[in-house]
Specification:
The complex is a heterodimer of chains A (116) and B (117).
Chain A: E1 4-7, E2 10-14, E3 19-25, E4 32-38, E5 44-51, E6 56-59, E7 62-67, E8 72-77, E9 86-95, E10 102-106, E11 110-115
Parallel strand pairs in A: 2-11
Antiparallel strand pairs in A: 1-3, 3-8, 4-5, 4-9, 6-7, 7-8, 9-10, 9-11
Chain B: E1 4-7, E2 10-13, E3 18-25, E4 31-37, E5 44-50, E6 53-57, E7 64-70, E8 73-79, E9 87-94, E10 107-108, E11 112-116
The chains are: A mainly beta (116), B mainly beta (117).
Chain lengths: 116, 117
């Protein structure tokens, strides 16, 4: 059974700091990995998707890396802002063996607070 | 347009009620999903529909009944729920489920906050 772990569970930083969120997964047979943002009581917003054949993806101040063989991904946020405060979730997508049907398995999330 | 619309936003129901949650997307996506999220927990997959057919049921109790009437619409029918079913119910969609797609990013709706009394 796929297990996804995120460290740290919570992080509080001053505005302007660069930070790294970590995600690890137990089964490396993944198809892709996604990072999501969730604001309190709201739905999820996809930030970055990395295919299993890729090493990293960048979008603005966000950079996500993937080391499939070691089962790890990191989300790097540069020059953090108070508006970045949210819960960040990583999720791995894997196909069920012998089928064309897949599912996302989420980590518990990292609660990020960026204070002015 | 990357919008997934869920209605209602909030729902309060008794254990003997029958209600339905609705999800709609107009992105031409052929895969749609229902997730359940308890407070301070990650979303958990309930159902996956691919080309309007149920492809994954994560052993969800029969008091939850999904329906996909067409490629743009996904419903979740609720009957005889328990208080522990209170949660945020999220709908998502993606281009598809088939391997070989360049991307299968899932787009999520804002969710329906369900309270069962």
């Amino acid at each position: 059974k796929q297990e996804v772990t995120q460290i740290p569970a919570a992080l509080s930083v001053p505005e302007g700091e660069n930070l790294v969120l970590n995600c690890s997964f137990t089964d490396s047979a993944i198809y892709n990995l996604q990072w999501f943002r969730q604001d309190p009581g709201k739905g999820l917003t996809s930030l970055l998707l990395i295919q299993s054949s890729q090493r990293e993806q960048t979008s603005g101040r966000l950079n996500a890396s993937l080391d499939k063989s070691s089962g790890r991904s990191t989300l790097y946020i540069a020059a953090s802002q108070p508006g970045d405060s949210a819960t960040y979730l990583c999720a791995v997508f894997r196909y069920a063996g012998g089928t064309s049907y897949g599912k996302l398995t989420f980590g518990q999330g990292t609660i990020l607070t960026v204070h002015p | 347009d990357t919008e997934v619309t869920q209605t209602p936003k909030h729902l309060v129901m008794g254990m003997t009620n029958k209600k339905s949650l609705k999800c709609e997307q107009h992105m031409g996506h052929r895969a749609m999903y229902w997730y359940k999220q308890k407070a301070k927990k990650p979303p958990e997959l309930m159902f996956v529909y691919s080309y309007e057919k149920l492809s994954i049921n994560e052993s969800v109790p029969s008091r939850f009944s999904p329906e996909c009437p067409n490629s743009s619409l996904l419903n979740l029918h609720l009957h005889a729920l328990q208080p522990e079913d209170s949660a945020l119910y999220l709908c998502a969609s993606s281009q598809g489920q088939a391997k070989g797609l360049a991307k299968n990013i899932q787009y999520f709706g804002a969710g329906t906050r369900l309270s069962v009394l």
